[in-house]
Amino acid sequence: MRPAEAADLAALPAVEAAADTLFLPLGIADLPPPAGADERARAWRVLVAGRPVRGFAALGRLDGDVHLEQLSVHPDAGRRGLGAALLAATLEEARAAGARRVTLTTYADVAWNAPWYARHGWRETTDVGPELAAVVRVEAGLGLERHGRRVVMARPVR
Description:
Blueprint: E1 2-3, H1 6-9, H2 12-20, H3 37-41, E2 45-49, E3 55-62, E4 65-73, H4 82-96, E5 101-107, H5 114-119, E6 123-124, H6 130-141, E7 150-156
Parallel strand pairs: 4-5
Antiparallel strand pairs: 1-2, 2-3, 3-4, 5-7, 6-7
């Protein structure tokens, strides 16, 4: 795991788009398009796995916490521990920044979403500050809930 370099950012939309194809068998074909390289460059941190990039974690700061905005692993590189390694690196970044926890939003009932994060120590939470609440409202406005229940999850950094 390493911080993204400028050249890595151009690869992130393709990795995210490929990862989103995993939702197709669930009938979810209309997720928002991947964020572009310019948007990812504005993230607080972007961590990547591989050269060329095979997975990434885009991180922001919300309500004093670190927020996992996006975690994507290319399906060709899936099931090899890259996602778990990106989560571990995310926790290290949060710890180094003095954050108390890492938050994320995800689908409650998609196997590689909330159940997977739960296996890695994340728990559903209602402890949501105003900045995270705004993210939840934006996601609701995008209609993400039409595909299933969305939850906020958090994991303490310690």
